[in-house]
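User: Reviewer 2 asked us to show a designed sequence for the structure in our supplementary figure. I'm pasting the structure tokens here. Could you produce the per-position amino acids so we can include them in the response letter?
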């Protein structure tokens, strides 16, 4: 018998694995969206109007809030949420150090003082660290529901008390829940994004402010429309940030499928956990994310912690596997916030995490075979093991 050794084909010959693939979702909704768009095109009602109002009602009900106010994008949603809630110069706003810059940017653009706080080992705002940063000037705490899992909203409310606003940054968590609350319905005001790659994504940009406080909702509607609800009505200085009807129609159609898509993400997360445990269970430096007790994670991103991330990233890239880093630097160590005077050591856990975190492919429709390939390349990169070999007789 002659032994023939075959090695894994070189990466370029293998099917790449995208970091995110929106095409299957787009194909699924195209027919229904076209029907809605055809009706809008016949009426030429492109900005605000009945389709936006319909989606706002649907999304508010889905999120457990009394009001949803559609705006142009997620960053505008944060800025309008702060302004509608009366946050401005002289106020301090506590924000987790590991978040997308827009969270901090919106605080700074409001004129308030940014106060970075540390995160826990699940990448979420740590209530214990928040407690140590509260001052007489603290006006709000921003609970960022990062990667698809809600921050500990009930505990944060206990820590900050009734006089400090609890603001949700819900851009990555449509459909998530924790402590009996749905994302967007737990705080005094919330902001979310409908950027195409979000769990609930438009065919362009979009966002929404969510609240159950009537006065905040009323002001948010003014602020998105040059400071007034009616044409040529300008009660205060606002912005031009209105959700358009075409995107609202897309979002209404997609909202009916959101729970099913989130279930696919959850199934993919469970497969990753099993594959990682099997392949790297003896490598404690590789840490998989988890769904916390009392929470429903919607897995916007699947973020692992790995040693020697640069080497792992290089191996994944060479194998044609999409991946990302969310986020490569904490907000207090970015050039845009250098003038605030924060330095290394401000948020030790967040700073340590940013050197380790790696986002693996995650989207509805991600297959088991794709995930096996991702974990195989990750294992080989972390352990230095050679590619698997097949022996034929």
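Assistant: Here is a per-position design you can include in the supplement:
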């Amino acid at each position: 018998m002659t032994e023939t050794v075959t090695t894994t084909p070189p990466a370029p010959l293998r099917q790449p694995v995208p970091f995110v693939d929106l095409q299957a979702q787009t194909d699924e909704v195209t027919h229904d969206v076209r029907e809605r768009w055809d009706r809008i095109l016949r009426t030429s009602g492109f900005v605000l109007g009945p389709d936006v109002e319909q989606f706002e009602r649907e999304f508010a009900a889905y999120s457990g809030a009394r009001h949803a106010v559609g705006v142009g994008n997620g960053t505008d949603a944060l800025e309008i949420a702060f302004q509608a809630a009366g946050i401005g110069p002289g106020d301090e706003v506590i924000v987790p150090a590991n978040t997308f810059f827009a969270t901090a940017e919106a605080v700074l653009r409001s004129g308030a003082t940014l106060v970075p706080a540390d995160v826990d080992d699940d990448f979420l705002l740590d209530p214990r660290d928040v407690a140590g940063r509260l001052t007489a000037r603290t006006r709000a705490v921003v609970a960022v529901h990062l990667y698809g899992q809600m921050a500990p909203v009930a505990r944060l409310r206990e820590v900050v008390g009734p006089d400090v606003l609890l603001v949700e940054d819900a851009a990555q968590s449509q459909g998530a829940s924790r402590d009996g609350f749905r994302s967007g319905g737990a705080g005094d005001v919330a902001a979310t994004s409908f950027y195409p790659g979000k769990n609930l994504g438009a065919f362009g940009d979009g966002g929404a402010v969510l609240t159950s406080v009537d006065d905040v909702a009323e002001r948010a509607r003014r602020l998105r429309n040059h400071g007034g609800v009616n044409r040529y009505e300008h009660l205060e200085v606002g912005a031009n940030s209105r959700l358009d009807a075409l995107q609202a129609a897309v979002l209404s159609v997609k909202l009916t499928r959101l729970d099913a898509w989130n279930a696919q993400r959850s199934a993919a997360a469970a497969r990753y956990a099993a594959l990682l445990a099997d392949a790297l269970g003896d490598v404690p430096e590789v840490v998989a994310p988890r769904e916390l007790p009392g929470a429903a994670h919607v897995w916007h991103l699947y973020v692992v912690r790995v040693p020697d991330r640069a080497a792992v990233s290089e191996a994944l890239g060479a194998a044609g596997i999409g991946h990302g880093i969310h986020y490569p630097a904490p907000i207090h160590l970015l050039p845009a916030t250098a003038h605030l005077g924060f330095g290394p050591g401000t948020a030790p856990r967040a700073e340590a995490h940013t050197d380790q975190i790696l986002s693996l492919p995650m989207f509805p429709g991600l297959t088991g075979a794709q995930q096996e390939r991702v974990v195989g390349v990750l294992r080989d990169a972390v352990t230095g093991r050679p590619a698997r070999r097949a022996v034929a007789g």
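For the response letter, you might also mention the following. The CA atoms of residues 17 and 321 lie 5 Å apart. Confidence is low (pLDDT under 50) at residues 1-13, 387-393.
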